Amino acid sequence: MLSPYYVLYLVLGLVFRVTEAIIGLLKLDLVARALEAKFGNFIIGLNDSRPKENAPTDSVSKTELDHLAKMVTFWWNKNGPAKMLHTFYQVRVPLVVEGLAETGRISKADISKPDSLKGVRILEAGCGGGVLAEDLARLGAYVVGVDPGTEMIDLAKRHLETESADLKDRLEYHAITVEEHAKKFAGTYDAIVCSEVMEHVDEKVSILEACVRCLKPGGSLFVTTENQTMLAWFMFIIIPEYILKFIPKGTHFYEKFVSPGQISKILDQYQCKTKRVRGFFYDRMFNSWSFIESDECNYGLHAVKK
Q1: pLDDT for residue 85
Q2: Scanning 130, 257, 265, 281, which has its CA 20 to 30 A from the CA of 16?
Q3: What residues form DSSP beta bridges with 191?
Q4: What is the pLDDT of residues 37-49, one digit of tens each?
Q5: Mind listing the pLDDT tens digit for each residue in 104-125?
Q6: Residue 217 · residue 187 · CB < 8 Å
C-alpha cells in the first residue's frame, strides 16, 4: 500500500516538472532573478541573502556555521526536529556499504554482517554532531569526523564520551575544514562521506576537491544532498521551514541545492568518476527513508577516484 505522503510526493513531482518546463519555455526564471535582485527575497527560500563572511576557508560562511550551531540543542533528540537524521541510516549506510562492496573494498558476502566495514578507514567531511559517524563506526569502520563548527564537534565528542563510549577506539573528531585536513592527510582514506553538506556550502568545488584529495586511488566518495528542483525546494524548504516549522527558517536555500550532474562534472575535473546515483524518499508520516528510482528530490552519489 502506498503511503499518502508518497502519493503527495508523486503528484507534486508531476506538477513541478510541468511548472519547470513552462518556466523554462517562457524564461520566467529571468524574471524571478530580476525581482530577487530588486526586492530581495521575493520568493521564499530561493536565495541566501545573509552576509557571506568567510569561515576558516571559503567553502562555508561563518553565518552558516552560526545558524547550524543553534541546532546543537536538539541534534541528538531522536524524537525532536532532527529526528529524520536518526532514521537516515536506512539509506545512508546501505549507500556506503553496498557501494564499497561494488568496488571490491569489502566482500559482497560481508554486506549483512554486523562488522561489514571492519578495516575500512572513512572520513566524514562535515560530520555535524556525529550521527552518521557513529552509525559507520558501529559497523567496524575507523571513522574520522571533521567539521568547521566547533559547537557541533564539541557535541559529537560529548555524545561519544557519554553515550557511545564503546566506539571511542574507532572514532575521532576534529574541528577543522576538510580543506585544511586534506593538507596533512592526502591519499589516506578508503572512503569519504560528505552527507547533507553540499546544501550548506557556498563553494562546491573547494570541498569536493579536498574530499578527492583525501582519498586513496580507487577510494570511494559518497555524497548525499538535495537536487536543485522545485520539488526539493517545496519538500525540504517550504514544508519543514514554513509550513510545519520544525526546523529554523533559513536552514536551506534553493540556490545552494545542487544536481548530481553538477557534482559529477566537478568530480570529473579531479579524476573521480561517478558510478551510481540513487534517489531517496523521506516519508514524514512514518519518519522513514527508502530508495526510489527518482533522484529529483534527495539523492546519494557514489564516485570512485582513479
Answers
A1: 96
A2: 265
A3: 122, 220
A4: 655 555 677 777 7
A5: 999 999 999 999 999 999 999 9
A6: yes
